[in-house]
Design a protein that fits this description.
The chain has 372 residues and is of the alpha/beta class. The protein is 52% helix and 12% strand. The protein is globular and about 55 Å long.
C-alpha cells in the first residue's frame, strides 16, 4: 500500500465505521444464498451431500461464477442441502445474527419455497418451522425478518401454484409479499393470475427484472405482475423513458452492486448505473443479494458505493432511509424507525465525524406506493 493509498484509507475510515454501525434495512437478500460457506460445508456433511469442494477456500473458488446458469447451479445445490425443518431454522437464526451484527434492523428475505417442495419438503412442516424461526430470531437477535416466497419463471408451472398457496397460508405468520425470480428469458404473463390473487389477498408484489434482461423485462413485470418494487432493475438505464417513468411513479429498485459485477451485468463498480439512476430521481436502495456467494455484506455495499461515487454520510443515510420507506412495514412502524434512524445517525456523526449527520429528507418520500 502506497503512502497516498494509506492516507486515503485513513480519511475514509470514520465514514466506513459510521456505515457499519448506522441502522439499515435490507429489501433484497435471499435466504438460501445467505448461508455462510462454513455452515454449508457442515450442513452438506450432516446431510450426506457431496459438494465440489470440502474447504471454505475451495468453495470460494467454486463461487467464481462463469455466468448466471453457473450461479443457479450453485443455488440449487445449496437448496438440496436443506433437508430437515431444523436446517431452515438454523439458517434463519444465522441470517438474523448476521443482520444484527450489521445493525440491519429489518429485512425482507426472498425464499424459494417451490424448490424445497420440489425436493420433497412438507409444506405444512416448513410453514410451522419458518414461522417459529422468525419469532425466535427477533427474540434472540432483536431484528425482524419477513419472507417473500418467489415464483420461479423456469420451473414447472404447478410449483408456482404451490408457492402461492404457501404464501397465502403464511400471510400473518411472516410472509409480506409474493416475488418472482428465475431466468428473465422466460415470459411473465403466465404468472399474472398468481399476482392478481396475491394482491386481492393483501400481499405485496415484487419481481426480479432488469438484471440479465433489458428494460422490456422491467416493463413486463410492472404490467403483468403489478410489481411494487423491482429486484435489480439496473438495466432500466438503457431506456430513458422507463427511467423517467420509474422516477415519476416512485417505483423503488432493489440494487445489488457487487452481485451485478460478479454475474457480469456490469464490468465493474465504476460502470454501475447506481448513481445515474439516483441522479435521475429513481428511488434506489442498497442490497447484498446473496452476500456469502459474492463475498460481500450490506455494510460493504454501502462502503463500496461511498468510495466509488464519493457519497458522504448524509447521502448514505438518505439511502438507508429510502430502503426503510420502500419496505412493506406498516406506516406507523416506519415513523418510529425514521425517528430512531435520525437520532442514531446524528449521534454517530458527532462521535466519528465531529459533526451531526442529518440526511436530506426531501430525497426520501414520507410514503411509498404499497407501504402498509
Amino acid at each position: 500500500m502506497t503512502a497516498a493509498t494509506e492516507q486515503q484509507a485513513a480519511h475514509r475510515a470514520p465514514l466506513h465505521e459510521l456505515l457499519a454501525r448506522m441502522p439499515k434495512v435490507e429489501l433484497h437478500v435471499h435466504l438460501e444464498g445467505s448461508m455462510l460457506p462454513a455452515d454449508l460445508l457442515a450442513l452438506a456433511r450432516r446431510r450426506g451431500i457431496d459438494l465440489p469442494a470440502d474447504t471454505v477456500e475451495g468453495l470460494a473458488r467454486w463461487f467464481q461464477f462463469s455466468d448466471f446458469a453457473h450461479f443457479v447451479q450453485i443455488y440449487v445445490t445449496i437448496c438440496r442441502c436443506l433437508k430437515q425443518p431444523e436446517d431452515f431454522q438454523r439458517l434463519v437464526d444465522a441470517v438474523a445474527a448476521e443482520q444484527a451484527r450489521q445493525n440491519i434492523v429489518y429485512s425482507e428475505v426472498h425464499f424459494t419455497i417451490g424448490t424445497h417442495l420440489m425436493n420433497g419438503q412438507s409444506a405444512s412442516e416448513l410453514r410451522d418451522a419458518m414461522a417459529e424461526a422468525l419469532v425466535d430470531a427477533e427474540r434472540r437477535h432483536g431484528v425482524r425478518l419477513r419472507l417473500i416466497p418467489d415464483l420461479v419463471r423456469n420451473v414447472p408451472f404447478k410449483w408456482a401454484d404451490r408457492t402461492l398457496e404457501w404464501a397465502l397460508e403464511m400471510q400473518g405468520r411472516g410472509v409480506v409479499a409474493l416475488g418472482l425470480s428465475g431466468f428473465e428469458s422466460h415470459p411473465v404473463d403466465p404468472f399474472t393470475e398468481h399476482f392478481r390473487v396475491a394482491a386481492g389477498a393483501g400481499l405485496h408484489r415484487v419481481a426480479h427484472a432488469g438484471e440479465h434482461g433489458g428494460p422490456e423485462s422491467v416493463r413486463a413485470v410492472l404490467e403483468a405482475c403489478g410489481a411494487e418494487r423491482i429486484g435489480h432493475g439496473v438495466r432500466s438505464i438503457e431506456d430513458p423513458d422507463l427511467v423517467a417513468e420509474l422516477a415519476a411513479k416512485g417505483t423503488p429498485l432493489e440494487v445489488n452492486p457487487t452481485s451485478n459485477v460478479c454475474l457480469g451485468v456490469v464490468p465493474d463498480l465504476a460502470s454501475h448505473p447506481f448513481e445515474r439512476l439516483r441522479a435521475a430521481g429513481v428511488r434506489v436502495t442498497v442490497n447484498s443479494d446473496d452476500p456469502p456467494l459474492f463475498a460481500t455484506t450490506l455494510t460493504e455495499e454501502y462502503r463500496l458505493l461511498a468510495d466509488t461515487f464519493g457519497y458522504d454520510a448524509e447521502t448514505c443515510g438518505a439511502l438507508a432511509l429510502a430502503a426503510l420507506d420502500a419496505s412493506f412495514l406498516p406506516e406507523s412502524e416506519k415513523v418510529e424507525h425514521r425517528v430512531a434512524f435520525r437520532r442514531e445517525l446524528a449521534a454517530l456523526g458527532e462521535e466519528l465525524l465531529g459533526r451531526r449527520v442529518a440526511p436530506d429528507f426531501s430525497e426520501v418520500s414520507a410514503t411509498t406506493p404499497g407501504s402498509g
